[in-house]
Amino acid sequence: MLRIIRSLATRASPRLQDVVIIGGGPAGLTLLSALKTSPKLRHLRCTLVEGFSLEPVRNFQVDPPEQYTNRIVSLTPKSIEFMQKIGNWDYIHEDRIRDYNGIIAYDSQDATSRIEFDIGVTGKDTLATMCEVINIQSSLLTKLQELSDESTEPGFEILDNTKVVEIVSPPEAAPDLSNHDLNQPDPTLGNNKLDWPIVKLSNGEMIQSRLLIGADGYNSPVRTFAQIESRGWQYNRFGVVACIKLQYEDFRSIGWQRFLTTGPLAILPLTEDNATIVWSSTPELSSLLLQVNESIFPHLVTAAMVLEEVDLNYIYQMLQRDPNDSNAVQEIEWRLSKFKPSELDENYPLPAVKLIPNTRAKFPLKMSHADSYTAPRVALVGDAAHTIHPLAGQGLNMGQSDVAALVQALEKGVDRGMDLGSTLVLEEYTANAWPANHVLLGVCDKLHKVFSTDFYPLVVARGLGMKGLNMFDEVKGFMMNMVSGR
Ligand SMILES: Cc1cc2nc3c(=O)[nH]c(=O)nc-3n(C[C@H](O)[C@H](O)[C@H](O)COP(=O)(O)OP(=O)(O)OC[C@H]3O[C@@H](n4cnc5c(N)ncnc54)[C@H](O)[C@@H]3O)c2cc1C
């Protein structure tokens, strides 16, 4: 069994580790697995600290729920290749993932403005794969369990249900003494002479780490400790997620995204007749979407993919007065009946017929980017380093790329016999990962801004842009490569 330490031990002086990872989300667990499967880094002594219990994640491997959970992401082939290399992909519940081969994106202000992406443009098999976040985390924990079972000295521990309460610099840091070998401790070397950060945990323990990793999400305590500035803004929008049943299984295997002025609504395929939605919306609309009666909700999703915004606003107002008003369903059906069935079949996603209970949730949307991913003895990965609008489904994928780039930089450091917490080793990570992330963050931010407006000249310009883009395979290929992480 994984040695999960929940001891309440209180230590006078911190124990030493090579790497401490804060955060057991997808980025933190991927990094621990990548370190422990790298031939050059697996000797490092690592601790991962997670504030919440990972028990539900462990249970998912042996006893997954029948219905889908609601945190579902679109994984790029690049992220999947990386996880295949680590080996956790072998433990993914494959019956709960779904590849898709294209996206149809269209504008609520002009139904004829469409871009149809399909993999024909890229020459690849799959554009992306829908997968629950807990499926990814669970496969990583299982891989780590396998590594632990194979070795008498796996050299890592996972402390879940344990919060980092404080991170401090040692009082008498002496950077020139930091190169000593952990395996051969120098008795004359007091820990307080190291410049390694000290992490204080809610279980009373203290750990002093050669390299401290912040995989601790948007409010990263590690980023705050390292005084790395993060810049960005709130979108004043929420991403409402939910799992739905479609009228029947859609064998087209495509994702649909409609740009409404309140924000884009995406329907992405899951196995059989299941699908997941991400509906970026204003604070008022997102509250309504969570309140609306469960049986009305799927009709609202179908309406929002097809009807004019003026009609949608009328229906929203009805439901704002009474979220259980079933007359709203009749209003929607009457309006949809004006479309020819063949037009609906060909140009729109299948109707939603059921909301999977307890899958509605909303998340505030924001854009943020840390000025750097590293400081002396510190590195940030995943949402601790950046958060992005979900319209292109890139957040978790960017975290996977961060991990790949950080591991590469650390392996190079080992090859050169360098101290892994040193700026010289870590700076290469920022240099390799930051610029590409910055471009992606910028593109998604602009897309959000251009599409969430009904300012007429911009509506006309984007309509022309979408029609034009749709005719150029090379431009579409470039955008598809961005979406598929190639
Ligand atoms: C609506 C929506 C849709 C999305 N869709 C997609 C998509 O399709 N594709 C995609 O790639 N991405 C998507 N994302 C983004 C993706 O979900 C995130 O980028 C990803 O989950 C972040 O993972 P992470 O491990 O970096 O951070 P997190 O998942 O936030 O993990 C951070 C962990 O650190 C722990 N932690 C924090 N502080 C402490 C502390 N003091 N002590 C101990 N532990 C601590 C937390 O408990 C948490 O478990 C979407 C996001 C949203 C909101």
Please describe the topology of this protein.
Blueprint: E1 15-22, H1 26-37, E2 46-49, H2 55-62, E3 72-75, H3 77-86, E4 98-100, E5 102-107, E6 110-118, E7 128-132, H4 133-150, E8 156-159, E9 164-168, E10 198-201, E11 206-214, H5 221-225, E12 230-246, E13 254-260, E14 263-269, E15 274-281, H6 283-291, H7 297-306, H8 309-321, H9 327-336, H10 341-347, E16 352-355, E17 361-370, E18 374-375, E19 378-380, E20 386-387, H11 395-415, H12 423-451, H13 456-471, H14 473-483
Parallel strand pairs: 1-2, 1-11, 2-8, 5-13, 11-19
Antiparallel strand pairs: 3-7, 4-7, 5-6, 9-10, 10-11, 12-15, 12-16, 12-17, 13-14, 14-15, 17-20, 18-19
Helix pairs in contact: 1-4, 1-11, 2-4, 7-9, 8-9, 11-12
Question: How would you characterize the overall build of this protein?
Answer:
This protein is α+β, with helices and mostly antiparallel strands. It has 2 domains: 15-67 and 134-229 and 371-444, FAD/NAD(P)-binding domain, CATH 3.50.50; 235-363, D-Amino Acid Oxidase, subunit A, domain 2 (D-Amino Acid Oxidase, Chain A, domain 2, 2-Layer Sandwich), CATH 3.30.9. Helices cover 37% and strands 25% of the residues. The chain contains 14 helices and 20 strands. The strands form 3 sheets. Strands 5, 6, 12, 13, 14, 15, 16, 17 and 20 form a 9-stranded mixed β-sheet that branches. Strands 1, 2, 8, 9, 10, 11, 18 and 19 form an 8-stranded mixed β-sheet that branches. A 3-stranded antiparallel β-sheet has the order 3-7-4. A hairpin with a 4-residue loop joins β10 (198-201) and β11 (206-214). α1 runs parallel beside α11 (395-415). The protein is elongated, with a radius of gyration of 24 Å. 45% of the residues are buried. It binds flavin-adenine dinucleotide.
